[in-house]
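Hi there,

I know you've been waiting on this one. I reran it after we fixed the sequence typo, so this is the corrected version. Both the input and the resulting structure follow.
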Amino acid sequence: MGYTIILFKTPPNFSVFLYICIMNFNFDKIKNIVFDLGGVIITLDVEESINRYKNIGLKNINDLLDPYHQSGLFLDLEEGKVSKKEFYDEVRKLTNPANTDDDILHAMLGFVKEIPQYKLEMIEKLKNKGFNIYLLSNTNSVLIDWLFNQDFSGKGKNIREYFDKMYMSYQIGYCKPNKEIYNFMLNDSKIIPAETLFIDDGKKNIETGIHLGLHTYLASNGEDFRYIFANVLK
C-alpha cells in the first residue's frame, strides 16, 4: 500500500506544518516517478562529510552543510554559481593551500554512505513496467562527476542508465524547494503533475511538490520504501 503526503497549514500566527498520510496512490493514473538522489536513492551520512571537512581545516563546516539545503560556498556549488575548480580553489583558501583536489573530494564523498542495490533494482523494475523515471536533485558537479565516472550499480551500469532524464540543481541554477527547478523539469519533460509521483526526503521540497500538484511521498534517509510499489511490482 502506498501513501501520499497532504499538507495542512495552521493559522498565520503559527509556523507548524502538519504532514498526514491519508491517501492511497492510484498507480493506474501515475505515469511518471521523480526521485530525489541523496537521502532517497543514496543513503547519506552528513556527519561523516562534516568530520572530513574539519579534518582538512574547514572549521565552520557545520554552518555550511545541511542534509536538505546548503549555505555559502556549498549553495553556490549546488546552484552552479561556481565550477568544480573554483570550489576546490576556494576550499583551499579557506583551509590549507596544500589540500589537494582528492583531499577535498574525499571530504565531499563522506556524504555517500551507501547506494543500496535493491533501490536500483526497484527503479529498473519500475522502468520495465512502463513508468517514466526522472531524477530531481539538489547536487553538485563534484559529486556528480564522481558518480558519472563510477560503476554506480556495481554491475557496470552508469547512473544515467536508470533515468529517462536527470534534472540537477547545479545545471538548472536553482535548488529545491525553489519552485523554479520544479517548473523547469515539468516544462522540459512535458509531464503532467497529476500523473507524477515525487519522492523526496525534505519536507519543504515535498511542500513545493504538493503546491504544484504532484503526488508526493516523504521518505526518510535510507528508508526502504519499496512497499509503496508493492501492488505495482508484484
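Quick highlight: The chain has two domains: 4-43+115-233, 45-111.

Best,
R. S.
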